[in-house]
Amino acid sequence: MGGIKIAPSILAADPLFLGEALDNVQGADMLHLDIMDGHFVPNISMGPAVVEACRRGSNLPCEAHLMIEKPERLLSSFIEAGSNIITLHQESTPHIYRGIQKIKENGVGVGISLNPGTPLSVLQSIWEEIDLLLLMTVNPGFGGQSFIPAMVEKIREARHLIDSGNKEIELAVDGGVNEGNVGEIVRAGASLLVAGSAVFGRNNGEGWQSFKEKVLQLEE
Ligand code: DX5
Ligand code: ZN
User: Fold this and answer.
1) Cβ of 27 less than 6 Å from ligand 1
2) Fewest CB atoms less than 10 Å from the CB: which of 50, 112, 195, 209?
3) Which residue from 197, 202, 208, 211 has its CB within 8 A of the most atoms of ligand 1, so it is best to mutate?
4) CB contact at 8 A, 92 and 68
5) What is the mean pLDDT of residues 64-93?
6) How many Å separate Cα 80 from the centre of its chain?
7) Which residues are marked as active site?
8) Strand pairing partners for 7?
9) Which atom of ligand 1 is nearest to the CA of 11?
């Protein structure tokens, strides 16, 4: 179970003190940035300027989780902003492969995300192109929602598929991850935990410390 990675989701941080929030998550593996357009999901959040700011304000790599319709239209902006990984939703475009090609051509990591209702089988023809698989364990759009229990089995299936292939793919889980369910999520096979409220829901980095310690215990 060694080497579980954690990506704090800054959607849950106070935007007025974003710099402090970045300073508080020392030892994290990646920053997770939720990009929402009010169309693909019923909420609006941040754009490329925030990705650029996070790259300046932190040494951590940044994943841009694009919850936007037809993301291929905006890829250049997120590439120029310095995203290290760009994650596309399979459901957000009929041209997922075009998006993947553009991301790869620019030397950026390719992430693919699936909503809870989307089966893993849609990945069959793009499997070889993926660096990170982001399984949504809530309906995307908001932080602070409850983990959907049926997703544990989907994580297990994804782990099985990854292990039976040749491509090294990070298996990330996003939505409702907290200290209470993280053990089950890791045992099901997640290798990267995205956590918003669990990390930033308490002040002064306390949430981060406590969450990180919980994950470290799982590794012992
Ligand atoms: C949901 C986002 C998540 C969210 C997670 O649409 O993709 O990354 O920030 O927040 P928590 O951990 O609070 O569920
Ligand atoms: Zn996310």
Assistant:
1) no
2) 209
3) 197
4) yes
5) 98
6) 19
7) 34, 174
8) 194
9) 9
- List helix spans (H) across the chain: 18-24, 48-57, 75-80, 96-105, 151-163, 182-188, 197-200, 206-219
In whole angstroms, what is the distance from residue 203 CA to residue 195 CA?
A: 15
The mean per-residue pLDDT over the stretch 119-139 comes to: 97
The residue among 4, 33, 220, 44 whose CA lies nearest residue 141 is 44
Q: How far is the CA of 88 from the centre of ligand 1 (A)?
A: 15
Which pLDDT belongs to residue 68?
Answer: 98
The Cα–Cα gap between 31 and 191 comes to: 15
Q: What's the 107 CA to ligand 2 centre distance in angstroms?
A: 22
With a pLDDT cut of 90, the percent of the chain lying above it is 96
Per-residue pLDDT band at 209 (split at 50, 70, 90): very high
Query: How far apart are the C-alpha atoms of 193 and 173, rounded to whole Å?
Result: 5
Two tokens, residue 84: 């290290």
Task: Indicate whether residue 174 lines ligand 1 (CB < 6 A).
Answer: yes
Which ligand minimizes its atom distance to the CA of 65?
2
Is 50 exceeded by the pLDDT of residue 173? yes
Report if pTM > 0.90.
Answer: yes
CA distance 53 to 96: 27
Residue 109 burial (10 A CB sphere; 0-12, 13-18, 19+): middle
